[in-house]
Design a protein that fits this description.
Chain A has helices spanning about 5-15, 20-30, 35-45, 80-85, 115-125; strands spanning about 50-55, 65-75, 95-100, 105-110, 130-145. Helices cover about 35% and strands about 30% of the residues of chain A. Chains A, B: GO terms for molecular function: sequence-specific DNA binding.
DNA sequence: ATTGAAACACCCAAGAG
DNA sequence: CTCTTGGGTGTTTCAAT
């Protein structure tokens, strides 16, 4: 599917604020409400827009500590990779998990209320996985930016 | 502000799907439409719900390469930290930037269409910052999980 | 927290460019 | 094919209880 400038603008605007009405969008883009509506439906149908979600303030929800862990596995067999990718999904503290190139195998993002909870996560959950090699943790001291919007080229 | 079980459930549901109607929520939670409505408005007013956004598929939007860069600065003076945190916001390829503890100073997440664009970003933008020390890049080979939902405790 | 009612947005049909 | 106009349906919002 090929996106024109109007589609791109719609995506940009909805990535910033999905609650704005089709009417508001129609005024910004000088189109009728229905034209906008049909374009949005198409973007949803094509799988370009995947979800509409509410974002919440982690600080206010007791997720005061964000930690990135670089994880290495003892081996890189398909079995172990599969097992890790299945097991990691069971830990609700892990909000992101990427298989990456470089010195380590995985980069995971962990959200917990405090250091005690992080310790619990490490001891009881992450490092209790048999096939786990090493882990290295980086604690987030300040979030400069953390956007869900994808740059549209 | 203290959240009861109903508030937490609402937050959980809206973090998964913000397009569901208050009526749908009212059925799931056995409350009236207005009761749900008032709770949501309160969560917005208190700043717990910060935004409603559309999520899009990066693959379909020409953001085929995700790279995490571990960045170190030459010094850690307040001036340099400030400068970096200002400058990094100007690069639209950088969707996230965290000041972290550990071997490096910052962890940034970069989204680009391809390797050529990444090279351009590194050469023309990131490493052209005078105060930049070292960088180490990890390329994402597979995204196992990447959720915007914060675990509610 | 609920009911009920007004205002509004969404969504579809029909038709124009 | 994508656009616009117009109207029915359902949702949001608010007042009263």
């Amino acid at each position: 599917m090929t996106l024109d400038a109007t589609d791109k603008k719609i995506l940009q605007l909805l990535q910033e604020d999905s609650k704005q009405t089709t009417k508001a969008l129609s005024l910004k883009l000088n189109l009728s409400v229905t034209a906008i509506y049909e374009r949005i439906k198409k973007l949803e149908r094509e799988g370009i827009i995947t979800d509409y979600v509410a974002l919440v303030d982690p600080e206010l929800l007791n997720a005061k500590l964000t930690v990135f862990c670089q994880v290495s596995l003892v081996q890189h067999t398909e079995d172990i990779v599969k097992a890790f990718e299945t097991d990691i999904l069971k830990f609700h503290e892990v909000v992101s998990c990427f298989h990456v190139s470089g010195d380590n195998d995985y980069l995971i993002k962990v959200l917990v209320p405090n250091m005690k909870a992080f310790r619990q996560f490490m001891v009881k959950k992450l490092t209790s996985l048999k096939y786990l090699g090493s882990t290295k943790s980086s604690f987030v001291m300040n979030t400069v930016k953390d956007s869900t919007a994808i740059p549209i080229t």
